[in-house]
Give the backbone structure.
Amino acid sequence: MATSDPAQRRPAGVWVSAAVTLLLLALTDLALAAWHRWPERLPEHFSSSYLQRYAAQPVLGANLVVLGDSELWGYGVAAADSPVAQLARGLGGTHVTNLAYEAETPINSDFVLRYLLARGVQPRAVVVELNPASFNQTAAAYDTLSANLAELTLPSLVEPFDRGKLNPAELQPPTTADRLDHFVADHWLLYASRVDVHQALFGDADLASALERRVAPLLQPVRPRDAAYAATYDLTPLDADNVSYAYAGHLLQTLAVHHIPALVVLPPVNHALLHAYIDNPAYAANLTRLSRLAASYHLAVLDCDGLLERRYFLDNTHVNRAGAARLARALAPHVTRLLDVL
Amino acid sequence: MQEPQRSANSESRRRSRVPFDDAVKMGVVYYVLIVGMIVLASAERYRFFYGNF
């Protein structure tokens, strides 16, 4: 009898282990679901679970929503010091939702707005940032959605407008791995909200990125040099052939059709650093085209392109804490006017 | 001297009859490994690097 014990015990032990593991994972999910923490901004690289949670809370929908990229997100500064956070403090009681994230080009903003509207969330007002760098046809996010946003919005929110513009790779049928990923994310909250957990714990998309961000400057101190941005600004005249420009038009048209008051912001750019590349008539003409595009939908435009001096920048376009404060102060009266219209 | 030996044997027999503790511990270990992997080792699959943006 004694010799048969271990063999008989093993299956029961495995089931007990599995049950304990599953129980602990379920408790972790319950704890995460109860964790009602609303960070001041999205994770830097977007989070589908954050946007899903936001869209599921109709009260939060009646807000000022900010759509933009890392400049308004507040790259390089703490969440509380980002331009949007400082703007929100200046507006007092108005709840401002910062739905900006890294490389939120017009196509990304357009699909975020489509998702909100499809979920029945109609923002009270919207601030749209149009960064001239977004219109560069060689930029990674020029015609491509953030992968997590694509998972949330494709193919259900595709419109005839997207044909010939959206990167065809986005419309490939999902692979088995994609389906499995969806299934796991739908049934396991810890997995679905891992980006949010990473952002909360490490302040970055994942631990590897957080370590790299801290270690890399020690190995090779980074100082912004203008040559690094030689290819950042595409000075080709903007027209409908530019996918980013086309999506900017579609985004602004959607806002106008849904009668959502909007302010279009052309963000500050470090002209002192980029003088050789952008202080020319072609760049100025493209800014004018963006302003005219917004005006064609009767939307207000705030041109902050030359607002800040070099000392307010971390690099070509990201602002430091003082720069963010200056930008927030510049935005405040226009946003107040936008909200007063209602 | 035999008393401790007997006690150890008795303890060993008791454990061999009740494997529950070990199984629970292994369950906790699996849980820590799974959560640790997701929190510490999972990386964002796709990221837009600044590059020229």
